[in-house]
Amino acid sequence: MTRAPAAWLLSIIVVGVAALAPTASAAEINPAVQLTAMSCASSGNCSAVGTYDDGLAETQALLVTETNGKWQRAVEAQPPAGAASAPFRASSGGGLADVSCLAAGDCVAVGRYTGSDNTDHAVLFAETNGRWARGTQVQLPANATRPTKPKSGTVDDLGLAAVSCSSVGNCVAVGNYETNAEVWEGLILTETDGHWSTATEAPLPADAPIAGQDAVLLAVTCQATGACTAAGKYVDAAGHQQGLLISSSGGLWTAVPALAPPGDANVDPNIVPSSLACADAHDCAAVGTYINPLQNSLGLLFSESGGAWADGTGATLPANAAPSGTVGDQTAVLASVACPQAGDCAAVGWYFDNDENGQGLLVDQNGGTWQPGVEVTLPANAVQGLEKQSAGLDWISCPAVGNCLATGVYTDAGYNSQGLLLSEVGGVWRAGLESPLPRNAGNIQYATTSQSDCTGVGDCTVIGQYDDRRGDVLGYTISESNGTWREPVEITLPPATISEVKLSLSLLLAPTGKQARLARIRRSRGFVFDYPAVETGTASDYWFARRKGHAVLIGTGRLHARTAGVDPLKLKLTHVGVTLLTGTKRLRVATYVRFTPAGKQRAQQAAGAFTLR
Questions:
Q1: CB-based contacts of 206: which residues, under 8 Å, 6+ apart?
Q2: I need a labelling partner for 44 at 20 to 30 A (CA). Which of 319, 373, 473, 580 fits?
Q3: CB 379: neighbour CB atoms within 10 A?
Q4: Mapping DSSP to helix (H, G, I), strand (E, B) and coil, where does residue 75 land?
């Protein structure tokens, strides 16, 4: 017979089940890692940003750094004071969009977060010597609107979409904001010698009206000289969405005169430049999408040569492309572009073929001329023919002319989504490769490679997502050295917080479901909990009941969690427990639970009470 210590009984009286009840079932919590951007200052020295769901099922921003070829444990980004409990939830407009690194451990990341006032704010994160500082809220132009706290929902106030640094401490970030005239304008934020100035409104072409404006800057790139170019969209005097290109010289930003859309564009071309690359200050390319009169999305190409931008052209699709002259048959997208040399660029994306399969798309520019698009050759295990392929390329990095790495996704013969690696070597595009995954990858996959960065020919780093054997979505990286791919590495998530551990323990405080009836527990002589361990360690569960005025142990359970995730914790009734449950119709039970992280002295505990009927 075991008696409960007096301290346990006191805590049972003070702390009830309701006090620790979770807002969502922790058994359903999935880390849901999404890596959105990466930048490498040199080989083996990179930083990546994204989001993940913590043990409280709240979306948090993720910051992770590679130092000398080793990826460190990720850290949870600390938003500015006054942030909401889930400041980076995508459904509320939050998240980190881009990162730029000019030296090992010295980076800038940008995005958007939600404040406790349910208003979105632009945010900057700075990494110095490998340590990320708390986020900084952006100081807006004087004409920015000051929204009041909404009664419900979130006010979509502003955000930063991209950042580029010309040198350490000298960067430019771009996005958009709402003015007090209730219109949207492009936003420019400049860092000089480590100091961020108040943001400024982006200039627009002469045909841009003031009323009804809906401008945004989506991409920016800066040269070592300090000259920068940014791309986005705006609304012209006719109310049509056009491409926006601006450039800076000596800190002064000017807008490129309005460029004509491709000849087959709709009256309102709905232009969206999604990516920008520059070989130097006067030779750039921007790619994205536009629509034709039949509302088909098509690939957009803008080119600058010697400081002069040409009107837009449409990407020529491969011969097997679905027709763009039929309503809704074609959706072509150019998602990313890289320009290692003036007039020599490469753009990637996807399109639909005649069999309604999504296919990867390559469009090369040689000597200033864009070539017809080419379908990507997928890995040998790709699903073929009428089986509905869903392939596409999201990113490309080119350290030298004719030497690039593109990343994306495709569908294998088992109908799994797999990460796609596509290399160009010596001017020849090779067949795509399935990205290797960490050893704990599951058989059912929704994997993807989301971005690449190459610091030299054959020396690249890739980030992506994959599903482990539990079905949890995790992040990973894989590096190429001298043309050979290394073993992929799982991103180690931040350690669980005390609140996360308490949430997981709260699910052990009372049995639930049909199996929680007294008769069922008596018959099975125990109860099985789905315990969601938020980190490696040992969880223990104890049930007590009163017998002859004393608290006696009636059930015990223990689980050694080797990894974070959901595992069954089997609580078994003691001999005394079986006796007490026999012949009774109601039993009041006190419970005590404890979690001790592996290799640590710190332990979290909670207590509660429930009634078995």
A1: 257, 258
A2: 473
A3: 18
A4: strand
Q: What is the pLDDT of residue 16?
A: 35
Coil, helix or strand for 538? strand
Q: What is the phi/psi pair of residue 90, to 5°?
A: -60, -35
pLDDT at res. 19: 35
d(CA 495, CA 74): 9
Tokens 């049909």 belong to residue: 514
CA distance 492 to 49: 13
3-state secondary structure string across 473-511: EEEEEEEEECCEECCCEECCCCCCCHHHHHHHHHCCCCC
C-alpha to C-alpha distance for 505 and 106, rounded to whole angstroms = 39
In angstroms, the CA 346 to CA 367 distance is 12
Domains (range + CATH), the chain: 6-24+498-612 (2.60.40), 393-492 (no CATH)
Long-range contacts of 144-152 (CB under 8 A, 24+ apart): 144/177, 144/178, 144/179, 144/180, 145/178, 145/179, 145/180, 145/182, 146/180, 147/119, 147/178, 149/117, 149/118, 149/119, 150/118, 150/119
Residues in the chain predicted with pLDDT less than 70, given as ranges, are 1-29, 147-157
The CA distances from residue 125 to 50, 73, 277, 302, 488, in Å, are 12, 17, 23, 31, 27
Tokens, residue 432: 């795509």
Q: How far apart are CA 218 and CA 162, in angstroms?
A: 6
Question: Using CA atoms, how far apart are residues 118 and 239, in angstroms rounded to an integer?
Answer: 30
User: How many residues in the chain?
Assistant: 613
Q: What is the pLDDT of residue 152?
A: 55
Measured CA to CA, the distance from residue 535 to residue 493 in angstroms comes to 10
- Beta-carbon contacts of residue 393 (< 8 Å; ≥ 6 apart): 335, 336, 348, 349, 350, 360, 361, 362, 376, 406, 407, 408, 420, 422
Q: Which conformational region is residue 269 in: left (phi greater than 0), alpha (psi within -120 to 50 degrees), or beta?
A: alpha
